Amino acid sequence: MTFDATRLVHSGIAELHPYEPGKPVEDLQRELGLERIVKLASNENPFGPSPAAITRMQQMASEMHRYPDGAARELREALSTKIAVPVEQIITGNGSNELLELALRTFVRPGETVVSAAITFAVYGLLSQALGARYITAPMDGLAYDLDALADLAEAHDARLIFVANPNNPTGTACSRAQMRSFLGRISPNRIVVYDAAYAEYADPDQVSDGLDLLSEFPNVFVTRTFSKAYGLAGLRIGWGVGHPSAIDMMQRVRQPFNVNRMGQGAAVAALDDTEFLDRVVEQNRRSIEWLTAELGQIGLRVHPSQANFVLFDVPRPADELFEALLHEGVIVRSMRGFGLPHHLRVNTGTDDENAFFVAALRRVLGR
């Protein structure tokens, strides 16, 4: 008898198309043998971690034979002090991705409905499908979330959970604080709203809520944040979430033990204290967004406004074709064809030198 594992899983897993991250630098070096490669595809912080975080990691290197604190108490207390929220309302995860999955595993049963926007973080649909939920998307308002359409969809399909990315990846758009409050006011308290604020540090705080100010008014909101973006700790996989105490209690029961590594916990605590480094990163990102927008505009390309650390822009040829051409120039970006945007690319901000290298490469492949 021939063994076929596909017969042992539910259809959601069998039909799943795995998430494809940005192409690794090592793969491109091996394939093309290029001397220099600039990766601007995964929305990473090009300046790396805070020096304080690096020092803390070095100090902790000899402790790696010990399991981490399963409750991440030091990190949660540091976050509690930072955001003025009780420790009991904070949970940590192996990147915010784990927290997205934890919310689904905790609150959504197989066959129940999860909703989000048509063009948003692909992991929402993948996780929902893998867990046997029904995933449905609402149409966009251009490249932004149409919150009215999303609220209508949640009501029409009795959604158990709603994913909202604000700012949104991959478009860089963001809904205002007033829009978000109006939307949440329409959502039944029997539905969980996962407010994914992975790029909150980069967004204009006068316009965009980081999610924390929504919690007292809307107890069904669960806010997810990360150290992978502005804090530069993507390789350590550290995420954190904030919600109602009862919701966090339920998620803590589902969470795997020792889910956040020891070095990551220490580095995150140190990174939180280094506010000067974070301020410099955010300011440099703001300048880079402005520079890239202007330079791409000079090439004749439309750049969409962004509240994150990347820009989405229109291209005159198929995105996959330009993606491949840029690879041969030593630049890794993201084609947006998989998001239903076959003539768009996304590029994250790099150092000044990396930004210039990218623009020069793009000019060459476009002949401009």
Topology:
Blueprint: H1 11-14, H2 25-32, E1 38-39, H3 51-60, H4 73-83, E2 90-93, H5 95-107, E3 113-117, H6 123-130, E4 134-138, E5 140-141, E6 144-145, H7 147-156, E7 161-165, H8 177-185, E8 192-196, E9 221-226, E10 239-242, H9 245-254, H10 262-273, H11 275-298, E11 303-304, E12 310-314, H12 319-327, E13 331-332, E14 334-335, E15 344-348, H13 352-366
Parallel strand pairs: 1-13, 3-4, 3-7, 7-8, 8-9
Antiparallel strand pairs: 2-10, 5-6, 9-10, 11-12, 12-15, 14-15
Helix pairs in contact: 3-10, 4-10, 5-6
Structure description:
With 368 residues, this protein is α/β, with parallel strands linked by helices. It has two domains: 5-48 and 276-366, Alpha-Beta Complex (Aspartate Aminotransferase, domain 1); 51-274, Aspartate Aminotransferase, domain 2 (3-Layer(aba) Sandwich). It contains 13 helices and 15 strands. The strands form four sheets. Strands 2-10-9-8-7-3-4 form a seven-stranded mixed β-sheet, with helices on both faces. A hairpin with an 8-residue loop joins strand 14 (334-335) and strand 15 (344-348). Helix 3 (51-60) runs antiparallel to helix 10 (262-273) and helix 5 packs across helix 6. It is globular. The protein starts with 10 loop residues before the first helix and ends with a helix.
